[in-house]
Amino acid sequence: MATIPSRSSLRAWFQCSEPGCEDQHYPLNEVVFRCRRCGGLLEVQHDTTALAAASADDWKAALDGRLGHRAPGGSGVWAHHEWIAPGVAPENIVSFAEGGTALQAMGRFAVEVGVPRVWLKQCGVTHTGSFKDLGLTVLVSQVKQMLAEGVPIRAVACASTGDTSAALAAYAAAAGIPAVVFLPRGKISVPQLIQPIANGAKVLALDTDFDGCMEIVQEVTADGGLYLANSLNSLRIEGQKTVAFEIVRQLDWQVPDWIVIPGGNLGNVSALGRGLDLMLQLGLIDRLPRIAVAQSAMANPLYLSYLRDFTVFEPVEAQATAASAIRIGNPVSIKRAVRTLQATNGVVEQASEDELANAAAWADRSGFFIDPHTGVALAAMIKLVGKGLIGRDDRVVVVSTASGLKFPDWKVAYHLSQLEGVISRHANPPIELPATVAAAREALERVLC
Ligand SMILES: *Cc1c(COP(=O)(O)O)cnc(C)c1O
Does domain 103-128+237-402 sit in CATH 3.40.50.1100? Predict the structure, then answer.
């Protein structure tokens, strides 16, 4: 039986992520979102020396033993308890059995694209329908831990393009903690809007965009009492980084050649980088995959910076895109995303509305049901194959971030060829017929030729 260090022997803390300011540390149970000295983002740091007391093989054996329902509460996130938040006591874990999602071979679609070994990491097949569950289980559990320790917190709060608020509302409701969500009015899908409402969160719909909501929520959470749940809070990154662990474990502890991931606020790509980095430090892997961040052409500040070798970064005003969760012009995690891309020899690609819609519909023809954000990632992958950057023998993992079921209006409009600026190449509209056998026969002759 492999021996791994006990949770009580492990430590984790917030540490400033700015070069030169790393000596700024804060306990994880303190209400702090940015470095008090320089205002930089904080990162959760682990005592990797203590973690490395177990060998890579010991860790692999321990984690393999926690697969699926044998993980605490069936959670793929808390299967990695020691690596994310060792200070959270088991009784304070708030979980909906998130994570542990399929790494689905893309089969016919992958062959058609010309890269047979493409897998879809189905992070959207989860409790609230997006990968945001992975981060919010950690954040809300930490808040529950803090409340148990007597830290005064009135509510948890976030600005959201829809999915964060859905996940925050669900986990907070499960824990009995009040939640407040700030949403850009009229800019998110009905399924996304109704989730926090149903779970009892206080929903503030503001006449602005996501970036506007983000400014306001940072202002109102600055003076304590409200605990900020946006991804600048790196507790979320700790949960989201388990996607990297799962991908590698699902490939029998092998590293893929590429991981393609859609990016908006850029917390998720940073999380991927953190997860890979920890596995590298603990010797579970010996190299890094290349990472490709996919952005909507309507909200592409990282792409524009990439074109200039990241020497400059300028926020943009994000325009309307079907990929509404990445309609972000001033990403909070820009610096950590650039660090991740530089460490992994990464690239950035963008996709137009036409490209993302047709990529999603193309994959749907092989049985998938792709949301617009994952459509951005698939379109980017197709373009990178076209440019010869992704080779036909490469092993590629595309991170799917949400369930297509959250975006029914967009799916319907595509198949009715009603999306503006999109030529629906894979449209499959229903055939409307009079209710007669003759009409049905005639239609079948036509469509099954
Ligand atoms: C939040 C979200 C993203 C973007 O993640 P970032 O961390 O903001 O880059 C992508 N897709 C979906 C569906 C999301 O909800």
Answer: yes
